[in-house]
Amino acid sequence: MGEAMVQPNEHFRVSANARYNVYNLGLRDANGAFSVIFNDFSASVGPRFNEQQTFRFIQSAATARISRFVDAKTFSAWDVTAGRATEVRGGSTSTSIAGPS
Questions:
Q1: What's the pTM?
Q2: How does pLDDT run across 52-89, given as a tens digit for each residue?
Q3: Do the Cβ atoms of 69 and 95 come closer than 8 Å?
Q4: CA distance linking residue 78 with residue 56, whole number of Å
Q5: DSSP letter (8 states) at residue 67
Q6: Distance (Å, rounded) from C-alpha 82 to C-alpha 57?
Q7: Which of 8, 13, 45, 74 could join 60 via S-S bond, C-beta 3.0 to 4.6 A?
Q8: Across the chain, where does the E strand assignment appear?
């Protein structure tokens, strides 16, 4: 198993991990992501591969701050083999700050 992450500056990150079988079965799974990060917005896109479960995906995600207390999120996974979207999610999260007691 191997994992690597490189963040050359505060706005860009590349990460990857992989699992290799040493008994002549080769690469078993691998994941990667290219991410951009800003104060009120972040997005990532990258491949996912798993030989045992026979899937190959491209996944993407984004988060945007709508207000001080609300974030909007979206996620999508595209099956490269079948050529179709397999999962699309979206939603929002809210945070609250407790006042003085």
A1: 0.78
A2: 888 899 999 999 999 988 999 999 999 998 889 889 99
A3: yes
A4: 8
A5: S
A6: 10
A7: 45
A8: 2-9, 12-21, 26-37, 41-50, 55-65, 70-79, 84-94
